[in-house]
Amino acid sequence: MSPSIRPLTLLFLVLSGCASINPSSSTLKKDPILQGKLEELVRGFRGDVGIYVRHLRTGYTASIRADELFPTASMIKIPILIGMFEKMSKGEFEYHAKLTYDDSLLYPGEDILGAFKDSAKITLSKVIMLMITTSDNTASLWCQALAGGGETINMLLARYGFDSTRVNSRTPGRRPDWEKYGWGQTTPREMAELLVRIRNGEMISADASEEMYRLLCKIYWDGEALSQIPPTVQAASKQGAVNRSRSEVVLVNAPSGDYVFCIITKNQQDQSWRQENEGYVLIRRLSRLLWRHFEPDFEWSPAPGMERWW
């Protein structure tokens, strides 16, 4: 503990941080123009949509069903990431420690880690990188176990004031939630504000938050929301997708001020896995809309033909 922080001060900070995930209501202002744009954007979508947007500097917000529960799909890997850094901050693991892969860890699919041979060595930092950067499910389930499992991660989330975001898969007592929402559940507001907390250095510790933020800025899956943001602008993000849901949370370090948004769908009629899936299209349109709304003087659009690289 820093000698400049007295125990009573630290206790106050912890308790005040757990009171609410939201910034003071006095700093938030509804953006009626943006709200109208969001409502027009989702009109006619064949499924349910939740959106939360906040411009960090001005406090302007807009939302649609922002406090309703939605499936996280792979966005749940952000809470797992936080759980891993909590363990490492306590000295239970070393970031660059050598681990031994075991075939029993395999989650069938196209994962990089799942292609490893039994007894192969890999550093923990690379396992964490694979979980976030390529959304490797084998790596993610390994990290979930190392972090103490879903119960431990959920208690950590509750400690930080997140009441809706929970790990369901392989977590005792949460089978009904798993059957309804899958691996995890959240609200658009909570997932966005979780990313803000990391960006602000408020999760686990300042140095842990900084490393987590760096990891979240190294995303392989850049064909949806990230494709509508200039490649010269940094953005932290995580994506999720299952048959009836598509989702993404993004924090953009934009020239005129950072903004965060989360969009999640559920009960989609379009369950295809093509580029033009209605959920993917909606995510791209939202990201483009927000970039142009917050950065109207920044003259940029994706280069012609970029679609073939998404």
- The biggest beta sheet, please? 6 strands, mixed
Helix share bin: 25-40%
Mean pLDDT, to the nearest integer, reads 93
Q: Uncertain runs with pLDDT below 50, 5 residues or more?
A: 1-19
Give the C-level CATH assignment of the largest domain: Alpha Beta
The CATH topology assignment of the largest domain is: Beta-lactamase
What is the strand content?
A: 15-25%
- What is the succession of H and E elements? HEHEEEHEEHHHEHEHHEEEH
Rg, alpha carbons: 19 Å
| Count of helix runs | 10
CATH H-level homologous superfamily name of the largest domain = DD-peptidase/beta-lactamase superfamily
Q: List the domain count as a whole number.
A: 2
Shape call? globular
Strand order of the largest sheet: 1-3-2-11-10-9
> Which structural class should the secondary elements be placed in?
alpha+beta
First-last Cα distance: 45 Å
The number of E-state strands comes to 11
